[in-house]
Amino acid sequence: MKNTDGARKGRPGAVRQGSKGKQVGSGGQGRQALEGKKPTPKAEDRPYHPAGKRKAAAERYETASGGRPRAAAPRTGAGPRAASAAAPVGSRPRSRNKSADESEVVTGRNSVVEALRAKIPATALYVATRIEVDDRVKEALNLANHRGIPVLEVMRPELDRLAGYDSVHQGLALKVPPYEYAHPVDLLEKTISRGQKPLFVALDGITDPRNLGAIIRSVAAFGGQGVIVPQRRSVGLTASAWKTSAGAAARTPVAMAANLTQTLKAFKDRGVFVLGLDGGGDISLPSLTLANEPVLLVVGSEGKGLSRLVTETCDAVVSIPISAATESLNAGIAVSVALYEIARRRGAK
After folding, report:
1. Residue 52: exposure state from Cβ atoms within 10 A (0-12, 13-18, ≥19)
2. Which of 66, 97, 228, 329 could disulfide-pair with 202, CB 3.0 to 4.6 Å?
3. pLDDT digits over 24-60, tens only?
4. What is the per-residue burial (b if ≥16 Cβ within 10 Å, else e) of 153-171?
5. Is the Cβ–Cβ distance between 275 and 225 less than 8 Å?
């Protein structure tokens, strides 16, 4: 006779059925779930909604217009960078992916002359043999001799190799050490101490050095005080950017932000309005009312535009009305148009 109890116990998957006894109620624990969700907040009460950003910017605008010092953010402990608790804002990157002895080569007659005028440290001035001497070449030679910079005459092929075969050097090249980037908050503090109204441009994900050079040139032309580039995934001040700026890089400082979002927040803490430039912006440039306030423009790449975190940090996102036949504007051109409009409104006031 088989042991049915043992077989039952040894059978895989056997489940003992038993009485569960009296069921216990929830005791009202699910009552809140039954009541449903609360009413959806209005668009202006949602901080990341364009209407909410406009409301917050309007409140800051009214507060600034009421006589409160725009740059009077509380400062604690370690100085101007203590306004933001995030450590990346306070870091000071010196150069981008370069060793201490690696140098840049500034090419082009205008760029070389402007760099020498600005007394940027240089180790050598290269001049092509049989160069056509004009006023800029004469000035470059005089400035180099006056500062004790070695002048080296080289053959055209050697100068092509030194400057890069895709660079138009016009017979002049200047060897300079890696660019010393400023700190964004230091530039802002210096601007405020001079009694100037801040006007800065920040780059978000732009990797073309020609765009950076064009933006630097526009900032210098329309009275801006500086350009801000992120430490990662962005272009730095290379020789190509120097060339495109046509010498404006010698007069307009470029700052590097270890964390662009935290830097934008630090500027906002000091009364600066952060405005993004994007084709899908909720405010048209002709309708911009913040032009006469301290402004930091942020521009993204032509393909990807502004990143999500940067867009959420902006007080407003501004669009430039263009013809339907053109899909978008180059980043350098968009910044030029926006800076012109801001300078025009400030001049008119």
Report:
1. middle
2. 228
3. 665 556 666 656 666 777 766 666 676 776 677 666 6
4. ebeeeebbebbbeebebbb
5. no
